[in-house]
TrEMBL record:
Entry-linked CDD domains: HNHc
One annotated GO molecular function: nucleic acid binding
Database matches in Pfam families: HNH
Entry-linked PANTHER family: SLL1193 PROTEIN, TYPE IV METHYL-DIRECTED RESTRICTION ENZYME ECOKMCRA
Name of this chain's protein: HNH endonuclease
Gene3D superfamilies: 1.10.30.50
Boundaries of every C2H2-type domain copy: 249-278
Entry keyword Hydrolase: yes
UniProt key word Hydrolase: yes
Classification via PROSITE patterns: ZINC_FINGER_C2H2_2
Amino acid sequence: MPFKGEARSAQAISNMRVAASEYLKVLERAEDASVGREAWLEFAAELGSLSARLRDGLNDANKGLGIASAREAILLYLLRHVGEPVPADHLAGVSGIAEWARRVRELRVEFGWPVESGVTRDDLPYDHYRLTADEPDEDLADRWRVAKEARNLKKPGGKDAAGRARLLHYLKAISPRPADKEQLAYVAKIQEWPRRLRELEEEGWQIVSNVDDPTLPPGSYRLPTLEKRPPRVREAIKLRYKILDRDRGTCQDCGRTPAQGASLQIHHVLPVHKGGKNEEENLITLCIQCHGGRHALMGGAPKDELLNPEYEADLRDV
């Protein structure tokens, strides 16, 4: 004889079966009828009511099996598929609620479960999720806690701080740890947050992305130091972005991009000590390997020549 929870779950499944059968019958009636706008609205109302019964049945079945909440159901399902992409509609199904996406966020933000999504990962379809580990990540939970604080940052007088100020506050608070683009978008509360990061870098803040450090996932940024760059370097950063944009973030020798693991630097075609200037026509984007190849006689790791002019100066005696 099944225990009480199993009986409740079995009854819920039976109720869903009835609702699903009625759902199909409504669709059959709609197919057989000459459906105009008003008639279709009547069919849609019936289908909506039956959909609600199906969701209620899912919840009852979950509770009958000891799954206390939609959030727990989502977590249990993700744990069964650790490391695998999971479609969003699967999570909607196991949760049995319309607000399932909020529960996924709670798993990340409040409990530190490392759930990736197509919003943050370019290698995932936009409507997919992936749990990367079977244990919560305390550091991730802490970064989200700080993100919530930064999101609510106020100016003197009680008004909300600007998006750029919130982003800087957050990056400084978690430095030197990285932030992904979902956290940054959450903190900034504006769609133009990447532009605000660029403005912060142009102000001298040494914000690093996977263009500079290919070990960072695409869309992640970190502030390795709380010291600002000197004014000379700030102007160089603006020019650097112009060259990267012009060259479409691609090494002009091998064609690789940061998405393919390339760390990009700016190179003077004609070296400064031979009369070359910091002008667009004398600057190109190279990956660190191709850059090193061009300076093979120098030895050592190449550096971005706009940001590290002393590197190229060492070539004078070569």
